[in-house]
């Protein structure tokens, strides 16, 4: 899997399907699943469980099975234009999200963003 070039691919990565394609080699046993992460604006970096937001650049890893990608993205990058544009505040307040057939809640470990919003 090729890691996306964030400068070149940023416009394309606005689309869910483009982000989902980066998860081709995502280990199936890792939760949250690739659909929840892609919906939350993340792309897979191709190593372990590392993902990065296509918009704000925050990079996350060490996901736990009960982690909620939306909540953690909003919590650690509240000024992300993507998170604010999509606007899931009511769901964030309830601390529960539904993707596919499951729901997720929880916390996550994040590293500092690799870059700030452009």
- In what range is the share of β-strand residues? 5-15%
Major sheet summary line: 4 strands, antiparallel
Order of helices and strands: HHHEEEHHHEEE
- Please, what is the average pLDDT? 74
**Count of all domains:** 1
DSSP summary, beta strand count: 6
Which fold name fills CATH's third level, the topology?
A: Inhibitor Of Apoptosis Protein (2mihbC-IAP-1), Chain A
Distance between the termini: 26 Å
- How would you sum up the global shape? globular
CATH homologous superfamily placement:
Inhibitor Of Apoptosis Protein (2mihbC-IAP-1), Chain A
Strand order of the largest sheet: 1-2-3-6
CATH architecture: Orthogonal Bundle
Number of continuous helical runs: 6
Structure in words:
A hairpin with a 5-residue loop joins strand 2 and strand 3. The chain contains six helices and six strands, in the order H-H-H-E-E-E-H-H-H-E-E-E. It is α+β, with helices and mostly antiparallel strands. The chain has a single domain (6-110), classed as Orthogonal Bundle (Inhibitor Of Apoptosis Protein (2mihbC-IAP-1), Chain A). InterPro entries: BIR_rpt, IAP. Pfam families: BIR.
């Amino acid at each position: 899997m090729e890691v996306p070039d964030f400068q070149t691919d940023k416009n394309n990565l606005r689309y869910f399907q483009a982000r989902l394609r980066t998860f081709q080699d995502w280990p199936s046993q890792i939760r949250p699943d690739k659909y929840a992460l892609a919906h939350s604006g993340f792309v897979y970096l191709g190593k372990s469980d590392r993902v990065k937001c296509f918009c704000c650049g925050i990079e996350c890893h060490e996901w736990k099975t009960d982690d909620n990608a939306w909540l953690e993205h909003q919590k650690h990058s509240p000024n992300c234009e993507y998170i604010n544009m999509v606007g899931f505040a009511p769901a964030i307040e309830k601390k529960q999200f539904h993707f596919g057939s499951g729901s997720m809640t929880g916390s996550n470990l994040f590293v500092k963003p690799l870059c700030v919003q452009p």
